[in-house]
Amino acid sequence: MTQEAMVAGIPQMGYGTWNRSADEAHQGVIWALEAGCRHIDTAQGYGNEQDVARGIKDAAVARNEIFITTKVKPDNYGPGAVMPSVRESLEKLGVDQVDLLLLHWPSPHNKYPLADYLGQFAEVFDAGLARQIGVSNFTKALIDESIRLLGSRTITTNQVECHVYMQNRPIIDYCEKLGIAVTAYSPLARGAVVGDPVLEEIGKARGATSDQIALAFLIAKGHVVIPSSSKRGRIIQNFEARKITLTPAEIKRIEGLEKGMRLVNGDWCPVWDV
């Protein structure tokens, strides 16, 4: 694997494929791998695992050089459903094992008990279908319960919304205290960071964009980041952000951009920690 910064065994800079259509996911993965990125993030719910696989194949990068993350969608949390769904994901991805497998959401409205689907998730891990496991969008209470239920198995990461305008300190501080890495999704606040005056000013002296400074901030915080784009230039630009080192004073200024701008807050979400 390319020598990149790692967080809990995960390459710190990844390429996210949320909201990428079949062709966008396929082409985006090729461009990301060509740029040197070696961490690709997908999910059952994105409907593009097979397109991610096509991108990896067409980029002609060896499997052992690529870190693949996918996620089990809540529709597949029913009795006996988790393992078959993961096997289907592996088939679509063209691999025997993913590097990281996440539970995408807590079961909406508690349709399925956590103990039931987490127990199935543990079986998938024990069967060797994933090298590491983690969760996404889990709250403090759910993290605590998951740790108890998983026993000696380690939760590698909690993937949560995190960007300069919603730094999500309650759950992030809690995960850090427990030694669980944070993976920041929507790290560019779905484009809202573009042109931010503070980020622009900090970037100007470095010849960097506001987007790159926003990513550099999350990297400085020790988070894994998975920005997404369908544009080749932007994919390359995002990946280059990992080379930027911010000063403590700059980090403090960016911390001041916090405004609680949560982008993901549907009725399927758990009650977020505040």
How does this model look, in words?
- This protein is of the alpha/beta class.
- The chain is 39% helix and 15% strand.
- It contains ten helices and ten strands.
- It has helices at 22-35, 49-59, 82-93, 114-126, 140-150, 169-178, 197-204, 210-220, 232-240, 248-255; strands spanning 6-7, 10-11, 15-16, 39-41, 67-72, 98-103, 130-136, 155-161, 181-185, 224-225.
- The strands form two sheets. It has an eight-stranded parallel beta sheet with strand order 3-4-5-6-7-8-9-10. Strands 1-2 form a two-stranded antiparallel ribbon.
- Strand 4, helix 2 and strand 5 (67-72) form a beta-alpha-beta unit.
- The protein is globular and about 55 Å long.
- The chain starts with 5 loop residues before the first strand and ends in a 19-residue tail after the last helix.
- The model has no long low-confidence stretch (mean pLDDT 97).
- InterPro entries: AKR, Aldo/ket_reductase_CS, NAD(P)_OxRdtase_dom_sf, NADP_OxRdtase_dom.
- This is Aldo/keto reductase.
